[in-house]
From TrEMBL, chain A:
Biological process, per Gene Ontology: cell division; mitotic spindle assembly checkpoint signaling
Location in or out of the cell: Nucleus
Originating organism: Hypocryptadius cinnamomeus
GO cellular component, one term: mitotic spindle assembly checkpoint MAD1-MAD2 complex
Protein name, UniProt field: Mitotic spindle assembly checkpoint protein MAD2A
Entry keyword set: Cell cycle, Cell division, Mitosis, Nucleus
Automatic annotation (TrEMBL), chain B:
Keyword Lipoprotein listed: no
Entry keywords, A to Z: Cell cycle, Cell division, Mitosis, Repeat, Ubl conjugation pathway, WD repeat
Biased segments, Low complexity type: 35-46, 56-70
Protein name: Cell division cycle protein 20 homolog
Pfam families named in the record: WD40_CDC20-Fz
Presence of the UniProt keyword Magnesium in the record: no
Name of the gene: Cdc20
GO molecular function: anaphase-promoting complex binding; ubiquitin ligase activator activity
Subunit structure: Component of a complex with CDC20, CDC27, SPATC1 and TUBG1. Interacts with NEUROD2. Interacts with dimeric MAD2L1 in its closed conformation form. Interacts with BUB1B. The phosphorylated form interacts with APC/C. Interacts with NINL. May interact with MAD2L2. Interacts with CDK5RAP2. Interacts with SIRT2. Interacts with isoform 1 of NEK2. Interacts with HSF1 (via phosphorylated form); this interaction occurs in mitosis in a MAD2L1-dependent manner and prevents PLK1-stimulated degradation of HSF1 by blocking the recruitment of the SCF(BTRC) ubiquitin ligase complex.
Amino acid sequence: QLGREHQGITLRGSAELVAEFFSYGINSILYQRGIYPPETFTRVQKYGLTLLVTTDPELANYLNNVTEQMKEWLYKCMVQRLVVVISSIESSEVLERWQFDIECDKTAKDDNGPREKSQKAIQDEIRSVIRQITATVTFLPLLESACAFDLLIYTDKDLAVPEKWEESGPQFIANSEEVRLRSFTTTIHRVNTSVAYKKDSVP
Amino acid sequence: MAQFLFEADLHGLLKLDTPIPNAPPARWQRKAKESGPGPSPVGVSPMKPANRSHSSSKTPSKTPGKSGSKIQSTPTKAGGDRYIPNRSTMQMEMANFLLTKENDPAEESPTKKEQQKAWAVNLNGFDVEEAKILRLSGKPQNAPEGYQNNLKVLYSQKMTPGSSRKNSRYIPSMPDRILDAPEIRNDYYLNLIDWSSQNFLAVALDNSVYLWNHASGEIIQLLQMEQPDVYISSVSWIKEGNYLAVGTSSAEVQLWDIQQQKRLRNMTSHCARVGTLSWNSYILSSGSRTGHIHHHDVRVAEHHVATLAGHTQEVCGLKWSLDGRYLASGGNDNLVNVWPCTQGVGGDFAPVQTFTQHQGAVKAVAWCPWQMNVLATGGGTSDRHIRIWNVCSGACLSAVDAHSQVCSILWSTNYKEFISGHGFAQNQLVLWKYPTMTKVAELQGHTARILNLTMSPDGTTVASAAADETLRLWRCFEMDPIKKKEKEKANSAKTSIIHQSIR
């Protein structure tokens, strides 16, 4: 255990950490916002917290695909943003938009030496962000209708679009309220989190 | 006679304007029967299948002048019909744009290009030249139909029907007394009431502390903060009931003598407000907004004898176990830490257990009086669960969803039950049977969320302080008179002499 602490962060390691964070973060959002029934989630220990991940095989598979792809793109530093869009199934209106901005230090390459930052410090930071995501339920407006989610990834213009992916618009919310959450950094990748939600039209 | 019947038959067969009695049903009749039990379009009455059901098929109604009754079959998928089965997967706007845009030559002046670029950046939030947005096609199966987002159900919970099994004892649904608590701070993280063994209820109202004598009903103002903008953040009675510890927003821990109504000590060691206090004979433990817990030995001048650093956010729940061996702490970082009473090797305090299962702030922390090492904890709005732990093994013995923010838990000494205080939407107190975790009763009355609970020294009454600026006293653990006599007999022999003489 001691060895891992002092290993430092490599580009590959950083990409894995951030992709993993996205996987757990998206699962938390799906659970907390009630997109999927809570009984389809199970508890796992991660980052020193008890987190909920889905047991639905299709959804898990879908998220795995995204996580794997994100790992690759993070390693190449070609991804700028990950967005979770929550929209009503019937009206296709976007109700909530979780935005994860990624700042990548392009000077980092695998042949450079690993950077100095302990795993523990990064874990602490990730833990704070995930706790904040959980706590947002206290102020986010209720999602009245059944909702579906979508994942958007902002990549560099010249990235080759892989099979199964297609181009899309930003899917902004009209008349939104935005809240910035904490951010965390691995010294190679920095992730800023914010959530935008539809302002209640009737006071 | 028969020839007339024959003639009538012949005539009947030859006439074409009456319905044929035994004919096979016409196509439109068959259709009507098929869709009969399902959606019944407006205007179809079962008695008249003829004309009206004709218009249930998709051919337009031929009767002029009749207002078009909206004919809709129940949509199987959102807004789908037989031409476009699933509207939500179509990209109508995109298709329309591509079909209708003219093939313009790209003749634009540089300024126009810049302007367009500026617009694009503004609209999209990023530079289209630098980045593009990708979406994984083929969305995963959505939640099964009929699944209603149950957070809505959760946050708009109505009255739950009473349990079918009658309680074996009578629990009054109205409070015994309602006391006014004006200016009480509506802050979830503070602990503003405590009941002493001498039957005084201490209540902190903003910057003052009042004592209410339960026996006589007398009210005394014990103290008022001198500095402006400083408020009381916690109160806690020492076991004997003659000293009261007071935590303030200016990070002080004060000790007051009740008899003389004087301040004995002002202990400063924290850097931020002291939201929670707990006594273990002469050791006073205080939890602060920084997440640190300090132990104070109130007998000596150098009072700050230990620091426990286990939380990264405000400590809102703090309770020593009844045997004084463990200290349980809950914080806004969703953690529950169980600390030993003695330092480990190396002189540092480290928790023997850390529980991370709660998804919200843990303010409700309570030790079971009849079972050693059993701890109950309750989570805030994001969590809403009550969990029972065995602190030796670290196992979660049971967890129950209370559907509402849990602010406090108290175990009963008279019954094998515990009571929890809640917030939105019903602001109720719930009595639970242990270990079956069934609801015994729900006490309603508060019109805003409950902030704190405390129990009377005889264990019969629970006082609840809420954001509606009232304190309500609930006589929910009243002992059966026969059982009471048995208990008193068992408790002390010497007082029985006094009883006899009084009689």
